């Protein structure tokens, strides 16, 4: 099965700074790479995703970059705001065609 | 659409009792997933259905757990008998297709005393 490692497990940044979270996966057949955000008391929600034929995708302050050779992809959040504070999960889709969730990153944006 | 609807929101029960969690997926979604979330193990896939048929239940921890999907708009996850180590948040999610965007419900917080 897919082995997924996500780093860091916790991240604190000052409001307005950037945050980067990295996800490493093992299955070379993986072709779909989403990031989910989970706020307290809620289910995870997709915030951005990328497919294997694209190296980067951006949506306003959020971007995802993919390095298939190295088997890792990253979430980039610029100009962080207090409402960005949450737990973020990567969830690459491997050859089993289902998502494997990383262990999560607790992001705290300090005012 | 109201999204994925789970009930109950919270469940407190005593060890040995039967627990039934319920889920209504988004209309038109062909896939339904049950996940369990704990601090120790993170988000674990328990079982998923495609067109009401269980496809992969390898994540179900043991025979005390069972899941059904009698029709396209309803699924249950049952634990019988429940144990304290089953305490967790259980999420239901649905998607249009395999590997597509997952829509999660708000979860059921289960506490087994």
Keywords:
heterodimer, A: 111 residues, mainly beta, 0% helix, globular, B: 113 residues, 11 strands
* Low-confidence runs of at least 5 consecutive residues of chain B: none
In order across it, which strands form the biggest sheet of chain A? 1-3-8-7-6
Euclidean distance between termini CA atoms of chain B: 36 Å
Supply the number of helical segments of chain B: 0
Order of H and E elements of chain B: EEEEEEEEEEE
Number of helices of chain A: 0
How much is the radius of gyration of chain B in Å?
13 Å
Give the SSE order of chain A as H and E letters. EEEEEEEEEE
Mean pLDDT of chain B: 95
Question: What would your notes on this structure say?
Answer:
The complex is a heterodimer of chains A (111) and B (113). Chain A is mainly beta and 111 residues long. Chain A has strands at residues 4-7, 10-14, 19-25, 32-38, 45-51, 56-59, 62-67, 72-77, 86-90, 105-110. Chain A has a 5-stranded antiparallel β-sheet, with no helix packed on it. A 5-stranded mixed β-sheet of chain A has the order 2-10-9-4-5, with no helix packed on it. Chain A is globular, with a radius of gyration of 13 Å. Chain B is mostly beta strands and 113 residues long. In chain B, the strands form 2 sheets. In chain B, strands 2, 4, 5, 6, 9, 10 and 11 form a 7-stranded mixed β-sheet that branches. A 4-stranded antiparallel β-sheet of chain B has the order 1-3-8-7, with no helix packed on it. Chain B is globular, with a radius of gyration of 13 Å. Chain B has no helices and 11 strands. In chain B, strand 4 (31-38) and strand 5 form a beta hairpin. Classes of the chains: A mainly beta (111), B mainly beta (113). Chains A and B meet through strand 4 and strand 5 of A and strand 5 of B.
């Amino acid at each position: 099965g897919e082995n997924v490692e996500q780093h860091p497990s916790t991240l604190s940044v000052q409001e307005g700074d950037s945050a980067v979270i990295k996800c490493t996966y093992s299955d070379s057949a993986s072709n779909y790479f989403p990031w989910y955000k989970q706020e307290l008391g809620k289910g995870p929600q997709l915030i951005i995703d990328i497919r294997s034929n694209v190296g980067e995708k951006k949506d306003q302050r959020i971007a995802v970059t993919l390095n298939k050779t190295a088997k890792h992809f990253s979430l980039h959040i610029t100009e962080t705001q207090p409402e960005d504070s949450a737990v973020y999960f990567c969830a690459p889709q491997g050859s089993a065609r289902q998502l494997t969730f990383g262990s999560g990153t607790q992001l705290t944006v300090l005012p | 659409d109201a999204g994925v609807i789970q009930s109950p929101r919270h469940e407190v029960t005593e060890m040995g009792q039967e627990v039934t969690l319920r889920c209504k997926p988004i209309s038109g979604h062909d896939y339904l997933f049950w996940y369990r979330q704990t601090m120790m193990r993170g988000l674990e896939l328990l079982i998923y259905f495609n067109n009401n048929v269980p496809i992969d239940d390898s994540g179900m921890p043991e025979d005390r757990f069972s899941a059904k999907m009698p029709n396209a708009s309803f699924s249950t996850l049952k634990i019988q008998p429940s144990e304290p180590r089953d305490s967790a948040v259980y999420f239901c999610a649905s998607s249009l297709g395999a590997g597509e965007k997952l829509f999660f419900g708000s979860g059921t917080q289960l506490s087994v005393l």
